[in-house]
Design brief:
The chain has two domains: 12-73, Winged helix-like DNA-binding domain superfamily/Winged helix DNA-binding domain (Arc Repressor Mutant, subunit A), CATH 1.10.10; 78-220, GntR ligand-binding domain-like (Four Helix Bundle (Hemerythrin (Met), subunit A)). The protein is 72% helix and 5% strand. The protein is built from ten helices and three strands; from the N terminus they run αβααββααααααα. The chain has helices at 12-24, 36-43, 47-59, 78-97, 105-124, 127-143, 148-160, 162-169, 172-191, 194-220, and strands spanning 33-34, 63-66, 70-73. It has a three-stranded antiparallel sheet with strand order 1-3-2. A hairpin with a 3-residue loop joins β2 (63-66) and β3 (70-73). α1 crosses α3, α5 (105-124) runs antiparallel to α6 and α5 (105-124) packs antiparallel against α9. The longest helix has 27 residues, at 194-220.
Length: 222
């Protein structure tokens, strides 16, 4: 998979979307600088628009800006990752507990169709497509709670975890594991098995958390 290069002029939203993908897919690494002049040349945007792109990425929790350094891809300590994922687990497990059964067949059909697309993108090595299909799957899943405030909080914390997730999204066995877990989630929904659903959602978060923390410990020699 290659970076998107040699772009003609794009809009602010498209530039944000491309950089978001490159952070979550590990093409841009934690602590890597995002240089304004390079973004100007790459995206064909004016400087004030590039600065808006960086502001939006910072708002999403993907970038941090430091005095005399500029914009960097967000990096976390092991403790920060533990805290972030503890909150994600609370939000996501509570969200699926709010799902009312039985679900309409149309809801299950939509999840199934999205997961089939996710299967196709994983199997073809289309990492960008897999990332977007994965996001759509979770949007549909958590939307079943009929609690848009909770869904928005889940989306916000998932975005903040993008640089954490990069280590698991580009490894083939982790992609395959996520794909299988999605089908198990659909099965639990069909079976109306709330406790299994909650456990699956909890387990689904662990690989990216554990991989990032292990990498932190290797860097610090712990």
């Amino acid at each position: 998979m290659q970076l998107v290069e040699n772009l003609s002029s794009v809009g602010l939203e498209q530039a944000v979307s491309i950089l978001e993908e490159e952070i979550v897919l590990g093409f841009l690494h934690p602590r890597e600088r995002l240089v304004e002049d390079e973004l100007l040349e790459r995206f064909g945007l004016k400087r004030h628009v590039v600065r808006q792109v960086l502001v939006e990425l910072e708002r999403m929790g993907l970038v941090e800006r430091k005095r005399n350094i500029g914009a960097l891809v967000k990096a976390y300590t092991a403790k920060e990752v533990e805290d972030l994922y503890a909150v994600r687990e609370l939000l996501e497990c509570q969200c699926v507990r709010l799902i009312r059964f039985p679900l309409p067949q149309s809801a299950l059909d939509a999840l199934t169709a999205t997961q089939k697309l996710h299967d196709e993108t994983v199997q073809s090595g289309n990492l960008r497509g897999a990332f977007r299909a994965n996001m759509r799957f979770h949007e549909l899943l958590f939307g079943l709670s009929d609690n848009p405030v909770l869904v928005a909080a889940i989306r916000d914390h998932a975005q903040r975890a993008h640089s954490v997730r990069s280590s698991s999204l580009v490894v083939a066995d982790q992609l395959e594991r996520a794909r299988r877990e999605h089908w198990s989630i659909i099965e639990a929904l069909r079976d109306q098995d709330v406790e299994k659903l909650v456990q699956l959602c909890s387990d689904h978060l662990k690989p990216s958390r554990d991989n990032y923390i292990a990498a932190c410990h290797r860097r610090t020699g712990q």
